Amino acid sequence: MKQLKDLSRGGESGISIDGVDVNNIVLVGMVSKIDNAVSDCTFRVDDGTGWVECTKWIHEPVDSAEVDAISVGMYVRVYGQLKSIQSRRTLHTFSIRPLTDFNEIVNHFAECIYVHLYNTKLRGGVTTQPQVTNSVVSNPIKGYQTNLSNQLSGQYNTDEQQILGVSSMVLNYLRRPACLASETGVRSDVVARELNISLDKIRTTLEYLSSEGLVYTTTDDHYKFTDA
Fold first, then answer.
1. Ranges for the OB domain (predicted)?
2. Which of 118, 125, 160, 194 is the most buried (most CB within 10 A)?
3. What are phi and psi of 195, to 5 degrees?
């Protein structure tokens, strides 16, 4: 959160962290305040280094259900788009997910540290940077590879290769105009049928993409591309 408070002006998006333009982000922290209104819910997420104000607009019953599921003192993962209006920064929230596995908190902090070090120390051609021979799915925060173990080893096992291969197909499908136009997103079984891939593999891939912030859930088993 401290990085968001110390943001500088960037290029296309107008917001930059460590010299990298950012737009869509993922937050992990504790809900410290909630203000409910008829058309929206404003809440604060605090991770111990600072807090960010988030707004979730209420358009459909699924939006109300997400808001009703959170409470002060609860740890959540929030997907959204960062907005800056008159020096006031807020997160336009796509999806809120209560955390049930607290290892996600530790993992998120480790990922933040890694991204910061990558963008400030490694990005730009440092010769000591580990070489990655395989292409990987990029995180919405551009400039680093998301799989830390792959970044260090430069190797993928068979399961990882399959997930990354299917990920590209799933993301391309969810970027289709019809999918982007849908407010509720696309069901996993529809994605599986359209791509002719097993439902189990599609669900595993969607869970992976969701954990990386590339897609988010809108309602039970429905997914949307985060940049939509």
1. 26-99
2. 118
3. -95, -5
User: pTM for the complete prediction?
Assistant: 0.54
Q: Structural domains in the chain? A: 2-103 (2.40.50.140), 132-225 (1.10.10.10)
Cβ neighbors of 144 (< 8 A, separation 6 or more) are: 114, 115, 118, 119, 123, 151
CA angle 67, 184, 159 (to 5 degrees): 95
pLDDT of residue 162: 52
Q: Which two tokens stand for residue 12?
A: 């296309």
**Cα–Cα distance for residue pair 157/47, rounded to 1 Å:** 33
Distance in angstroms (rounded) separating the CA atoms of residues 225 and 191: 13
Structure confidence by residue, pLDDT tens digits, 57-97: 998 888 888 899 999 999 999 988 888 766 677 888 988 98
* Owner of token pair 């110390």: 6
Radius of gyration (Cα) for the chain, nearest Å?
A: 18
Adjacent-strand bridge partners of 89: 84
| Number of residues in the chain | 228
Side-by-side strand order, sheet with 215-219: 186-187, 222-225, 215-219
